[in-house]
Design brief:
single chain; alpha/beta; Oxidized Rhodanese, domain 1; five-stranded parallel beta sheet; elongated
């Protein structure tokens, strides 16, 4: 009969061994982040409002609000244009033609956890051919904090 202590330690030790083996094969880890890396796998750079603001003011970047039109009408960052994440493909193509596919775009939505920015970024890249897309980290809340 296996001693009680061996039975108690089996699962934690087996878990450690499996974890070490996984780490050896996948050094990037399972759910770990490297220094400076954000927890986003969509491929879009997150930028802080302090970096965005001067680029928007100079006209170098275009600021896009991904929230619905009612939310945009109630409050938006000055200089932003409205392009709801749920827009039809024709609207995305018109947007790309109107503003150009090469102009850097920064997309924001309502909160830090809002996914509308990433959804719109993916659609603008995949359906309208834009390539220089960033996402405002913290959404409109980041802008509000600086006012």
């Amino acid at each position: 009969m296996v001693p009680l202590i061996a039975r108690i330690l089996f699962f934690p030790l087996a878990s450690l061994a499996l974890g070490a083996a996984y780490q050896a094969v996948h050094p990037e880890g399972l759910w770990t982040l490297r220094a400076g890396q954000k927890a986003h796998d969509d491929g879009f750079e997150r930028v802080a409002w302090t970096e965005v603001q001067p680029k928007i003011s100079s006209g170098e970047w275009l600021l896009v609000d991904a929230r619905d039109e009612d939310q945009f009408a109630a409050e938006h960052i000055p200089g932003a244009v409205s392009l709801p994440a749920a827009s039809y493909e024709e609207m995305l193509l018109f947007f790309a033609e109107e503003h150009g596919r090469e102009k850097p775009v920064v997309i924001y939505c309502g909160t830090e956890d809002c996914e509308m920015s990433a959804e719109l970024a993916l659609r603008l890249r995949d359906e309208a051919g834009l390539s220089r897309i960033r996402i405002l980290e913290g959404g409109i809340l980041a802008w509000r904090r600086t006012r």
